[in-house]
Structures are given as C-alpha cells and as structure tokens.
Amino acid sequence: MAFEFELEADLEAPRREEEDLWVIDIGLGYDKDEGVAVVMTVMLIRGDSYLEGKVRNAFDLQFGIRKRSLYYVTTPDFHKEAGRRYIPQQHNKDVLTRILSAAMNLTQEVKPDHLTMETFDANLESKALKKYDDICASLAKAGYEVAESFREWYLRRR
C-alpha cells in the first residue's frame, strides 16, 4: 500500500449529502496505488425515525474512514484497524482535534436537540474510549449535556 499521510489543515463547511445526512470530510492523505483520497468523515445522521415520536430532532454522531475517488466514495469504515492503518499514532491528537471541530461545526449547522454516539468495536480499552469523553466535553461547550453513557452516549441540548 502506497498510502501517504497528509492531514488537511482546514475544515470544510458542513454539507448535506442526503436529506438526513450532514458530513464534514477531513483529508487524511492519498493512496497512490488505488488512486483514492482517504478521508475521516464526521457525520450527523437523522435518527428520530426509529424513536416513534418519543423525541424529535435527534441525530447520531458518527465518524469513520472513507476512500474517495473521482468515481466512487466508500461507506465509512468504523473498525479501529482502519484508524491504525491510515492515522500514524503520532497524529492521533491532531486528527481528534479536527474531529472535535467538525462535530462542533455540524451541531452548530444542524442544531439537533438530541445526539447519540456509539462505539463500533465492543470492549474498547479506556484509552480508546477517551475520545468519546473528549467529544462530550467539547459538545458541552455548545450547550449539550450527557444524559446517559456506557458504550453508547446520549446527549441533549440544555
């Protein structure tokens, strides 16, 4: 694999990819063999459809790695192995800082009343869970509070 890590310095504006999907892509680099850009995609996906009217304006906050070419975009890869493959360990904090900024920008644009997050991999080490605590702390600055957390997080606007 001829992947070259090159973290994008500036965040793009939130964009709507589908009616119920808002995204910000953060460039991670390029795989010259595959001819693709590798991006960390931070997403807000409307999630109130399965809640049967219990809450409105609920979104799921997700982030995962996608490959993007001129012809296609892959679905997000949420596995921790993908992160290890495309994000050099010494750049983890830099990528997390961009994820935090993207989450803030998305919530300011979409203004969800309720947010959920869930880890993809079960039984993560506490070190791996810290990023979710960091996201919650960042979103607290935007007026959200953690209502519940375990392997899933539920935040609501204060």
How are the secondary structure elements laid out?
Blueprint (H helix, E strand, L loop, with lengths): L2 E3 L9 E4 L2 E11 L4 E11 L11 E11 L11 H7 L5 H19 L3 E5 L7 H15 L3 E6 L2 E6 L1
Mean pLDDT: 89
The radius of gyration is 16 Å
**What pattern of helices and strands is seen along the backbone?**
EEEEEHHEHEE
Instruction: Tell me what the CATH architecture is.
Output: 3-Layer(aba) Sandwich
Q: Briefly note the structural class of the backbone.
A: alpha+beta
Largest sheet, in brief, is: 8 strands, mixed
Keywords:
single chain, 158 residues, alpha+beta, Aminopeptidase, eight-stranded mixed beta sheet, 3 helices, 8 strands, 26% helix, 36% strand, globular
Description:
The chain has a single domain (3-157), classed as Aminopeptidase (3-Layer(aba) Sandwich). It has three helices and eight strands, in the order E-E-E-E-E-H-H-E-H-E-E. The protein has helices spanning 80-86, 92-110, 126-140; strands at 3-5, 15-18, 21-31, 36-46, 58-68, 114-118, 144-149, 152-157. It has 158 residues and is α+β, with helices and mostly antiparallel strands. 26% of the residues lie in helices and 36% in strands.
